[in-house]
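Tutorial, part two.
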Amino acid sequence: MTWRNWAGNQRTDPRRTVVARDADEVVEAVKNAQRDGLRVKALGTGHSFTGIAVPEDVALRPPSDPTLLRVDAATGLVTAPAGMPLHRLNVLLWERGFALPNLGDIDAQTVAGAISTGTHGTGVTHQGLAAQVRGIEIVLADGSLVTCSPTERPEIFSAARIGLGALGVITSVTLQALPAFRLHAVETAMPLDDVLDGLDELVAGNEHFEFYWFPHTGIAATKRNNRTEATGPTRGRVAEWVGDDLLGNGAFELTCRLGAALPTLVPRVNQLMARQMAAAEYVDRSYRVFTSPRRVRFLEMEYGIPRAAIHEALAGLRAAAERHGQAVTFPVEVRFAAADDVPLSTATGRESAYVAVHVYRGQPHEAYFGAVEAVMTALDGRPHWGKLHTQTAATLRERYPAFDDFVALRDRLDPEGRFTNAYLNRVLGAPGGAITSTRKALPEDPAGPGPAQ
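Running the prediction step on this input gives:
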């Protein structure tokens, strides 16, 4: 069966697909692959735009059974099966009186997929999802099932929090949750120059702040989310449908198609959408505020840069959009995060700003993304592991202080490259004794993305 990612730009025909119900079945699948000389990739929900999860031989779905979820009410430690989607975990946690302290803006990824690629939210005092990890259970290349934490196999634990799927197949993840909380969301449109002039105050004055700049306009849609004990104002079903489904997906899909057909209309369309999509105030469960449905398919590039470089980055990005993004209907997303100590985190060792650019699925993106990447690279940018970029091991080594330590650990745990693929060979280098595969990734599907795998 052909595997494809959500965006449809990555697809392949694995030799076989294994659906594991528990850790023992993951061990069995890895040992069988070792016997047959095959490579293994754990599958999530296909929400990476890069080839990080492309299964060239064995496509392995890790455990996802909700009955495997364990919540310690005394400590808030939550152990979830690796294949459980975040949207399912969020609901189950809320029912038990808990929530994750921060999330990205979508919740379709699996728990293991989200931490392994460096998923993060926004908030200058908040770290990415991997920094919430307190324990990992993982199957290594020799078929051994090991548990690791800050005190048990700490070297593996430290690296595996954002392991890119290169160290083994994660079977469960223990996260630190908090008592369930609500967020007060305020979404408003502002002149971009006003946002940039007052950026330090906006970032410091809100627990979670982000903004979206619509290319070819001077407008930014801002989002401010702060904890509250209040229960209102609330969004009714109609308001929620208008915000998330009509404007956030239905009308936006139409504007993307219109922009592709008539590029000269894009500035006016973007100006209209910026004002319509940023006009809301409500209180809701934290995970409902953090995340939004994403049904309009697109391609994305995101870079993490030192926070102090954000003004220079936006200046370069605005110039790049004018030169190379004439028909870009998708806004540029800007978020912020605290420094962490995860070796391959884009925020390792530094407070970071994140700049993400998007292009409607099927539209040319190479020139626009290339121009943006040049700006971010000059600012010591680190690309999101699951989003499009052209970096290699040679260029990434300079940007991560512990890069060589991570690769050395990978080579020790997986000398034959049981868990590698073409993408990982590019960004990490191939292990010295790596096996090879005759399977190749297929070209982008001209018929469209199809269902995510």
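Residues 118 and 340 are 11 Å apart (CA to CA). In part three we will examine how such features are distributed along the chain.
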